[in-house]
Amino acid sequence: MRTAFNGVAQSSSHPFRASASVQPEKKPIPNNTTSVPTDQQTKLLHPPQKPTLPRETQTIVGVALIVTIMILAVVIISGLASQSAAHSVLPAQVPTITVVTSTVTPLLKQTVTLEPTYTIVANANEAAFTPSPTYTPTNTSTSTPIAPQIAQADNLLLTISPGVFIKLVRIPSGDFLMGSTDSDTKARDDEKPQHKVTLDEYLIGKYHITNEQFAIFTKATGYKTSAEMNGSGMTLGAKLIIDTKGADWLHPSGPGSDIKNKNLHPVVLVSWDDAVAFCEWASTVTGRKVRLPTEAEWEKAARGTDGRIFPWGNCPLDACSNIYFNFEDGTTEIGKYSPAADSPYGVADMVSNVWQWTSSMYASYPYSPVDGREDQKNPVARVLRGGCFGCPYQIRSASRSLDVKTARIYVYGFRIAISP
């Protein structure tokens, strides 16, 4: 076989091998070499060996060495396995999803047209609108201890006080179509594209939270709303929404007004912060996780799974909703248009009457519950749904609006949701 060494001269000058023809030189033994005694020759030829252990001891030492090596191997393998397991429980890196969260100018600091119906303007006597401060449900020294939890006998009735409960509707898990198509001529760009969203089962309030229900909360906690803390709220006047001193949920039109005989009307002039505070209190007294519905949960409850434009179908029916200022006082009792205007699931008053706060930040579609828009601590503006008695063009199931968390307006209310 030919190798890299073929053709190399086999001479003594080669650095790796000697020439085969070179014989070792034999040196003669000098004649004057002294003879060595026989015993010394034996020692030189056969030097004494070092003392060795008995065979039994060698066996024991060998076994001990093998056992020690096995134990070390087990320890090393266990350590590697633990390290691998530790890495396996680390969460996988979630791909970053960019959500449009550009700075939103509060609607209440400027003149804003809500469709063609009325306009929000700042009070001429005030230099600028001052948002109310943030606060917790126990924000006053007059707060009273929250009562013990109330037994819940019915899964679809949330009892918040003896004889006072919130009716709930079960929304099954599954897909639905969220948003609008280009064929809907009333649709705005922020409703597009229409897309499929999958939700788990949840419960949603059949009606808005009423004055009666909200009063139980404030009485139990001493809570003061954003309007009460700020000393003013946005009220109606000549088709304008004006910042009115002294306006709050107890005085929705300002000083001199009240909510007598309106126990079953939706509570208004409540901010997103106020709605969240109510949910936290209701969670405490009922033992259930009460919260605001997400924007997607609200829309599915309103339109079902077939993508209908209105809760009752695809044709606008004025007789099915409180729009065009049908009533002098603005709001109507909850359920006034039920069941004719109910959603496919039997949820009432989903559109008209008052706008409803959702938990979701205002962001572009498609909707995703894990892209950051459900971060409850983010200060970004929140989505409102459903339109109101003065917004005939925004009572569609897919219509969206937004406002800052502290906004308190005569046409803002809310309903609750619960995860089963």
Q: What features would you describe in this structure?
A:
The protein is an alpha+beta fold. It has a domain at 109-124 and 154-418: paralog of FGE (formylglycine-generating enzyme). The chain is 20% helix and 16% strand. It has six helices and 15 strands. A hairpin with a 2-residue loop joins β8 and β9 (240-245). The model is unreliable at 1-38, 40-45 and 84-145 (pLDDT under 50).
Biggest beta sheet summary: 5 strands, antiparallel
Low-confidence stretches: 1-38, 40-45, 84-145
* Second rung of CATH, namely the architecture of one domain: Alpha-Beta Complex
- The helix-and-strand class reads alpha+beta
Annotation field: number of helices: 6
Principal-axes geometry comes out as elongated
Give the overall average pLDDT. Answer: 75
> Termini distance?
81 Å
CATH topology of one domain: paralog of FGE (formylglycine-generating enzyme)
Spatial strand order of the main sheet: 3-4-7-15-10
Strand content: 15-25%
N-to-C series of helices and strands: HHEEEEEEEHHEEHEHEEEEE
List the helices and strands and how they pair.
Blueprint: H1 38-45, H2 55-88, E1 112-114, E2 118-121, E3 157-161, E4 164-171, E5 174-178, E6 195-199, E7 202-205, H3 211-221, H4 226-230, E8 232-237, E9 240-245, H5 272-286, E10 290-291, H6 295-303, E11 355-361, E12 382-385, E13 401-403, E14 412-413, E15 417-418
Parallel strand pairs: 2-9, 11-14
Antiparallel strand pairs: 1-2, 3-4, 4-7, 5-6, 7-15, 8-9, 10-15, 11-12, 12-13
